[in-house]
């Protein structure tokens, strides 16, 4: 039988004023009138990471209707909603910092505009559970039992009552949160059967409030999205019914227009369309293929034995590009490697913005071809391979192009953005191509070639330093991994530091399970690891799973693979045939 609230109060009273490590004596579970409080880990120092706690409410009294979590996407959305309500209650109830170090703080891992599968909240037929952290209060290095009593027996129960009982929540808001997520899943699921790679609903608000905010732009300057008649489609959703919007077809699509007219904003929204968004985000009904990958040039990244020969060959000094390696890639070689790697780990849609691309990788115009003959140019530009990708590998591409009309010749669809409103100008672009024919020569044959897969050698992944595991997320876009730091600055579709945390722990999990065996290709390894997660939950990858981590969020396979490919100690073996 767990101890009760009274026993917790007594324990805290006895350790009041004693050394901080005495807090470890309160680890355990405590039965409150309407929930159970678990103290899974009590920090040993006020400046250490906060203590780990959980609150669990039996479903029979939490009262959430079963239809709110009857499917995976509904369950994820409901858990997301409860977590956000718990976080909102913290802002209202918790007094905040009190004492030394992290004293007096309570926090929960919640997201931004995306609805991600997280470990911060669990819902099933038996119970509702929230996982959160508590900065146990101290003055100096002594326990403040009185403050801790107020936090654990007054503030925490208030948070639970405000967020973990269906009767305390706005039922309409709960239902909307769940249904909007479900509708987005339904839209995404229809893309392939309709020959689409993305869908942007009429009325969507794509611009963000600022360059450092993911909140939607508000005010009179907002231009709601309106699909052009030529690309308008109607899709069905289980809750909202029929939704109209712009469907982007498979193949090669150009987004053109003047500067500041919304080209990159549209591409960014499509890139984020691999995730579901919260109601009110403005992009709730903007979806893309789940495997869409944003590609860019990435000067300085490391590359390990990638076959970039479809784009780059005949380098000076006979440097091999069928197994290209470097610790300091150029813009063109990095962009080539990024595309080939994306084909390796699986994508059906490349998203490319001219502004973040290497110019010499994207195109060589007729004048440059005349001045520098192909025999002296190792780069086969993307313009000459983009159609081969579509025809031979079924990989579509959406490109933002503002400066190279030569791409008109290879496009299936051309969309012009004017004041954030799209129009279809495909026929006009074709007429321009006829009136002003390009003087460039195609520099690729009609064959792209097979994709060379690679197996990861386990000795190239060492997360230890001086025989101690050194692994941590350094913000959203970096992972400390042993003696190396994995730089994720250019992994643009990574949206939450809790995803970054999972990536690091997932790599160590794969090492310990010997999934990186030097024989299996990277995609297969990650599929196996993510299948384990799907079966057992994200807790399975945690080195401290007995402490029930609440700070994980699910990444895509694509972002995990990108992290592996950016490890500077990486060693691989090419899998021929």
Offer a few descriptive terms.
577 residues, Rossmann fold, 3 domains, seven-stranded mixed β-sheet, six-stranded mixed β-sheet, 23% strand, globular
In words, what does this structure look like?
- It is a single chain.
- The longest helix has 22 residues, at 72-93.
- The chain has 14 helices and 32 strands.
- Helices cover 29% and strands 23% of the residues.
- Strands 1, 2, 3, 4, 5, 7 and 8 form a seven-stranded mixed beta sheet that branches. Strands 19-22-23-16-24-25 form a six-stranded mixed beta sheet, sandwiched between helices. Strands 14-15-11-18 form a four-stranded antiparallel beta sheet.
- By secondary structure, it is α+β, with helices and mostly antiparallel strands.
- Helix 3 packs across helix 4 and helix 3 packs across helix 5.
- The chain folds into three domains: 3-169, no CATH class; 193-451, Rossmann fold (3-Layer(aba) Sandwich), CATH 3.40.50; 453-575, no CATH class.
Produce the secondary structure layout.
Layout: E1 3-4, H1 5-15, E2 28-31, E3 36-41, E4 51-58, H2 59-62, H3 72-93, E5 106-107, E6 114-115, E7 121-123, E8 127-134, E9 138-139, E10 142-143, H4 145-163, H5 171-190, E11 196-201, E12 208-210, E13 213-216, E14 232-237, E15 241-249, E16 252-256, H6 263-272, E17 276-277, E18 286-288, E19 293-295, E20 303-306, E21 324-326, H7 331-345, E22 349-353, H8 359-362, H9 366-371, H10 386-393, E23 396-400, E24 413-418, E25 421-424, H11 426-435, E26 453-456, E27 464-465, E28 468-469, E29 471-473, E30 478-481, E31 484-487, H12 497-512, H13 522-536, H14 557-565, E32 572-575
Parallel strand pairs: 1-2, 16-23, 16-24, 19-22, 22-23
Antiparallel strand pairs: 2-3, 3-4, 4-8, 5-8, 6-17, 7-8, 9-10, 11-15, 11-18, 12-13, 14-15, 20-21, 24-25, 26-32, 27-28, 29-30, 30-31
Helix pairs in contact: 1-4, 3-4, 3-5
């Amino acid at each position: 039988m767990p101890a009760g609230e009274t026993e917790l109060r007594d324990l805290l009273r006895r350790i009041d004023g004693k050394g901080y490590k005495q807090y470890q004596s309160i680890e355990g579970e405590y039965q409150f009138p309407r929930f159970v409080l678990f103290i899974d880990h009590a920090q040993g120092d006020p400046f250490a990471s906060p203590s780990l706690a959980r609150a669990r409410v039996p479903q029979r009294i939490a009262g959430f209707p079963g239809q709110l979590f009857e499917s995976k996407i509904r369950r994820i959305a409901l858990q997301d909603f409860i977590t956000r309500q718990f976080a909102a209650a913290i802002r209202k109830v918790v007094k905040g910092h009190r004492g030394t170090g992290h004293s007096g703080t309570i926090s929960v891992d919640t997201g931004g505009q995306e609805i991600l599968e997280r470990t911060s909240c669990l819902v099933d037929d038996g119970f509702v559970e929230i996982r959160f952290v508590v900065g146990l209060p101290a003055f100096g290095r002594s326990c403040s039992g009185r403050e801790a009593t107020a936090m654990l027996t007054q503030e925490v129960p208030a948070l639970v009552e405000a967020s973990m009982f269906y009767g305390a929540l706005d039922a309409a808001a709960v239902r909307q949160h769940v249904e909007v997520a479900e509708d987005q899943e339904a839209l995404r699921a229809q893309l392939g059967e309709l020959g689409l790679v993305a869908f942007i609903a009429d009325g969507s608000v794509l611009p963000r409030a600022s360059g450092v905010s993911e909140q939607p732009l508000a005010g009179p300057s907002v231009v709601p999205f309106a699909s052009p008649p030529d690309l308008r489609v109607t899709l069905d959703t289980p809750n909202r019914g029929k939704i109209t919007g712009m469907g982007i077809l498979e193949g090669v699509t150009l987004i053109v227009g003047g500067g500041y007219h919304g080209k990159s904003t549209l591409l960014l929204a499509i890139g984020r369309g691999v995730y579901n968004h919260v109601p009110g985000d403005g992009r709730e009904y903007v979806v893309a293929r789940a495997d869409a990958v944003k590609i860019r040039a990435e000067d300085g990244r490391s590359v390990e034995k990638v076959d970039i020969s479809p784009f780059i060959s005949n380098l000076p000094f006979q440097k091999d590009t069928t197994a290209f390696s470097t610790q300091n890639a150029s813009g063109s070689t990095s962009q080539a490697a990024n595309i080939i790697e994306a084909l390796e780990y699986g994508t059906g849609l490349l998203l490319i913005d001219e502004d973040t691309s290497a110019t010499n990788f994207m195109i060589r115009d007729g004048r440059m071809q005349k001045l520098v003959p192909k025999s002296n140019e190792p780069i086969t530009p993307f313009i000459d391979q983009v159609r081969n990708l579509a025809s031979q590998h079924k990989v579509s591409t959406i490109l933002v192009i503002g400066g190279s009309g030569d791409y008109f010749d290879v496009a299936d669809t051309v969309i012009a953005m004017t004041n954030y409103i799209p129009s279809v100008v495909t026929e006009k672009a074709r007429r321009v191509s006829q009136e002003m024919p390009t003087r460039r020569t195609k520099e690729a044959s009609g064959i792209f070639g097979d994709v060379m897969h690679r197996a990861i050698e386990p000795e190239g992944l060492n997360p230890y330093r001086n025989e101690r595991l050194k692994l941590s997320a350094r913000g959203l876009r970096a992972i400390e991994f042993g003696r190396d730091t994995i730089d994720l600055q250019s992994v643009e579709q990574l949206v939450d530091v809790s995803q970054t945390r999972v990536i690091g722990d997932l790599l160590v999990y794969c090492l310990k399970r010997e999934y990186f065996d030097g024989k299996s290709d990277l995609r297969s390894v990650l599929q196996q690891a993510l299948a384990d997660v799907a079966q057992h939950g994200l807790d399975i990858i945690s080195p401290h799973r007995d402490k029930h981590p609440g700070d994980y969020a699910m990444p895509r396979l694509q972002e995990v693979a990108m992290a592996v490919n950016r490890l500077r100690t990486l060693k691989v073996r090419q899998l021929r045939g």
